[in-house]
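Table 4 source record.
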Amino acid sequence: MVTGHAFNWSILFLITAPYVIVGAIGGWLFYRYRRGSGSVLPILRRAFRLRCPRCGGGALYSGWFAMYPRCAACGFRYEREQGYFVGAIYANYALTVGVAAGAVVALDWTIGLTLTEQLAVGIALSALVPVIFFRHSRSLWLGINYLLTSAEEAEDGAS
């Protein structure tokens, strides 16, 4: 009886799950864009600018980590429920792993790092990237959720 393979598969699942989720969302956004829905790009632009996904007028953040509860311009509520931004954590994790692992591999390939240097670069990037991308991952998640719910509301209203 081999038990080591189950452990390896569970680790593989944990590592790839965020990429599968982010890839599925990216595929859906591409489908929505190709289908002719003109709202995808403006909402994503608002997300990258840290603005309200509905109107683009209100700011999302009052400080570096403090988020306003609602949009000052249109009243759109940002956090729907406790745990609403768990998907943003997945996106942040996927970006962090991609940047940290990519940088370590690229630096090792170009200048040849020792194991200690690889660990130092990887740990430093793993600590810095989530903090730097925190606001944008939440904003992007809010914009994607707005795209999902606005599509559902439009379909409900049409039927």
